[in-house]
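Morning!

This is the sequence you dropped in the shared folder:
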Amino acid sequence: MPTGYLCPPVPGRADYLHSVADLLSAFNKGIIPRGDSIRVLDVGVGASCIYPLIGHYEYGWSFVGSDTDSAALASAKQIINSNGKLSQFVELRQQVGAHILKGLLKTDDCFDLSIPRFMPLWLKPKRAPEESGTI
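The structure's back. Tokens below.
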């Protein structure tokens, strides 16, 4: 990783993905969905590319990772390319400007979940998914 970039605490990131997997299982008859048909958008993938690494190796999920920082994306690409066939399951995209999703999403994109880095309070759910019927 480039000097000055954060090295995330891996156990916390893994716990987060395990929690998300458990949540997805609640909508899949108690079975954690596995395989690359599960697509995850990782907004702010960072230089470590930690969520795609853990998510693919643990569950086989595919990822689109985005970032505004070209050095972070270059580091993430190097990590992906150093990990076997991971490049088949992780696509990196450059975010441009202040609008996080503008120009980032393609017409045919469809994601099962998104991993926002720093979710503003106004975006956090006010009710548990089982109460509202949505994730």
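Headline: Helices lie at 10-25, 50-59, 70-81, 129-132.

More detail when I'm at my desk.
O.
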